Amino acid sequence: MKKVMKITGLVLSGIVLMLVVFCVYVAAVGVPTYDPPVVPKITVERTPARVARGEVIAQIQCMECHANKENRLTGKYLAEVPSLFGKLYSKNITQDKEKGIGKWTDGEIIYFLRTGVRRDGSYAPIMPQYPNMADEDLKSVVAWLRSDRFPVQATSQEAPPTELSFVSKVLAHTLMKPLPYPQQFIGLPDSTDQVALGKYTADAIGDCFACHSGDMLDQDKVHTEKTAGYYGGGIEMVGEGGKPVVTANLTFDEETGIAKKYTKEQFIQAVKGGVRPDGSILQYPMSPKMMLSDREVGAIFEYLKTVPKIKNDIAKKRAEIQLAQK
Ligand code: HEC
Ligand code: HEC
Prior knowledge:
By secondary structure, this protein is mostly helical. The chain has 2 domains: 48-173, Cytochrome Bc1 Complex, Chain D, domain 2 (Orthogonal Bundle); 194-325, Orthogonal Bundle (Cytochrome Bc1 Complex, Chain D, domain 2), CATH 1.10.760. 39% of the residues lie in helices and 3% in strands. The chain has helices at 2-29, 48-60, 62-66, 106-115, 135-145, 166-173, 194-205, 208-212, 264-273, 294-306, 314-325, and strands spanning 86-87, 163-164, 236-238, 244-246. A two-stranded antiparallel sheet has the order 1-2. A two-stranded antiparallel sheet has the order 3-4. It is globular. The mean pLDDT is 93. The structure holds heme C (2 copies). One heme C binds next to helix 8 and helix 9.
């Protein structure tokens, strides 16, 4: 018995020692850096159709995190991120050559959006990666970033540098790592297949699953449907004025999901207009996705019907949080 205790003790102290070494290492290294990548040699042709499509994607993605009050992509404070992750600021991604991304090549932008790794090998753990976005849509984003549209015109204003918490640094070494650059061509979904179009719009373009699943950290960005609590909601976020908001259960569970709460038309109205069927307004950070087409949002509704139902009572969770605040 004594021997067993001794071995257990040794193993435990070994684990503790390893953890301490890991923490010291993380504190010293910060966010890991990688070898400067070999970026693809791509020159994106800037057609009007691409700029228009890029604008749609930018409205529901890039603008939300990078646009200042004047609608310029100067970078800003990301108030909705829980303070556990640190004090996060996005960056200037206008065409400015010094402060923005005016000097980045098209390939460098595409590589970064897929993997999270910059040309110098530095890594941006908080910036979302887009592993499943079609090559064509990614090119549209680049075409828009290079266009003459107001938000991307060069300006030298910028936000302060991000201060990542220790937790974020640990995560950058563990759960939030760079993604590999895809080796294969990624095509657009078959637009006549509602379910495929819906999954693509929700997961690859809208990043809806990232907020509407069970956990912000433990997510499978490539095989999105493997994410824990996929579309079951329940993540607590920081809303307007620092008030907590809880993300909704978007599965078709009859009791706690959207099956009985929304018709397709009402769903489209809520997602694009930001208003629920009962007239209540969806709170920040659930912003209206007004540039998505009715067809795309309707397709998300059809896709959600096929997602495994999850029983997760968000109203109850909201009430508990409000009670705890009093
Ligand atoms: C959820 C918020 C969020 C969204 C959405 C987002 N970004 Fe970012 N982005 C960030 C943050 C935060 C950083 C800064 C990371 C850092 O400081 O390491 C960043 C950094 C970047 C950088 C690196 C800039 C530099 O100088 O290092 C580029 C390029 C970029 N984003 C482009 C985009 C584009 C294009 C989109 C839309 C497809 C987009 N981002 C969407 C939050 C976001
Ligand atoms: C940045 C995180 C975030 C993203 C991204 C996001 N949502 Fe939300 N969503 C929320 C939050 C938070 C709420 C709850 C808002 C409230 O309580 O007023 C919500 C609520 C909703 C509701 C209302 C459900 C109800 O119970 O009435 C719908 C519908 C919805 N989201 C759909 C979507 C779709 C579709 C997408 C992708 C195109 C999406 N959301 C992307 C955070 C997000």
